[in-house]
């Protein structure tokens, strides 16, 4: 998925295959909304995603990339972790994925450059006024900016339903072990084909893990 035209260096960040591969991720800017619990069927999760898209549209009206290039729509992304010390999402253990009450997540939508604080506050207020559910109101109130500097990462493409994702995560972390790499950040997902747009068998998700050598 290209976001800034053919040949742009960021294009490769949204390309992956089922085989784990190293990628160097530069510092990037996002709008973000935090949440918790099982994302499937969650009104909070859906409201967070919708808020990010609406906020990005509002910000784009008044901003453009500093280098003048076009900045197309980016895929939704998410950081995932758990408050349960026994649960390591990166373990890929299907049984540990059944109870998702301890899951925590940050949904992200990439921006071409940092969002001005005053502009972000105005967008937050605008979306809060238009919110028609408690979940939408909470998402608007929690809208914030986040910068990520993940650096060296390993990523692969998971094709299919979230229930089958543990096998792909196990493959990714077996690759880390084989290459002498260690996790150095939160589990990161990029939804090239998200669940809101296609049946489970057609979903395409990049699984990304920041790493360190040795």
How many DSSP helices?
4
Quantity of strands, as a count:
9
Helix proportion range: 25-40%
User: Ends: how far apart?
Assistant: 32 Å
Strand content: 25-35%
Q: Cα-atom Rg, whole angstroms?
A: 17 Å
Q: How many strands, what sense, and barrel or not for the largest sheet?
A: 9 strands, antiparallel
H and E order = EEHEEHHEEHEEE
Average pLDDT figure = 87
> Given the C-alpha coordinates, what overall shape results?
globular
Task: Explain the overall architecture.
The chain is of the alpha+beta class and 214 residues long. Helices cover 27% and strands 30% of the residues. Strands 1, 2, 3, 4, 5, 6, 7, 8 and 9 form a 9-stranded antiparallel sheet that branches. The longest helix has 20 residues. It is globular.
In a few lines, what is going on in this structure?
Helices cover 27% and strands 30% of the residues. The protein is an alpha+beta fold and 214 residues long.
Features:
single chain, 9-stranded antiparallel sheet, alpha+beta, 30% strand
Ordered list of secondary-structure elements with their pairings:
Elements: E1 21-25, E2 28-36, H1 43-62, E3 76-82, E4 103-111, H2 117-130, H3 134-142, E5 144-148, E6 151-159, H4 165-178, E7 181-183, E8 187-193, E9 204-213
Antiparallel strand pairs: 1-6, 2-4, 2-5, 3-4, 3-8, 6-9, 7-9, 8-9
Helix pairs in contact: 1-2, 1-3, 2-3
């Amino acid at each position: 998925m290209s976001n800034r035209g053919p040949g742009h260096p960021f294009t490769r960040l949204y390309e992956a295959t089922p085989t784990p591969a190293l990628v160097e991720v530069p510092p990037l800017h996002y709008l973000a909304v935090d949440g918790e619990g099982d994302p499937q069927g969650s009104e909070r999760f859906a409201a967070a995603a919708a808020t990010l898209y609406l906020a990005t549209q509002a910000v784009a009206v008044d901003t453009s990339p500093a280098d003048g290039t076009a900045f197309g729509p980016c895929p939704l992304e998410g950081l995932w972790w758990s408050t349960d010390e026994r649960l390591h999402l990166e373990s890929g253990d299907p049984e540990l994925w059944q109870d998702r009450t301890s899951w925590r997540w940050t949904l992200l939508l990439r921006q071409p450059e940092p969002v001005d604080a005053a502009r972000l506050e105005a967008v937050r207020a605008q979306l809060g006024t238009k919110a028609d559910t408690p979940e939408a109101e909470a998402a608007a109130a929690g809208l914030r900016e986040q910068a990520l500097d993940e650096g060296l990462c390993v990523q692969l493409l998971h094709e299919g339903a979230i229930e089958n994702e543990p096998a792909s995560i196990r493959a990714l972390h077996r690759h880390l072990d084989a290459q002498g790499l260690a996790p150095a950040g939160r589990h990161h997902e990029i939804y090239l084909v998200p669940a809101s747009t296609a049946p489970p068998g057609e979903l395409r998700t990049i699984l990304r893990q920041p790493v360190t050598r040795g």
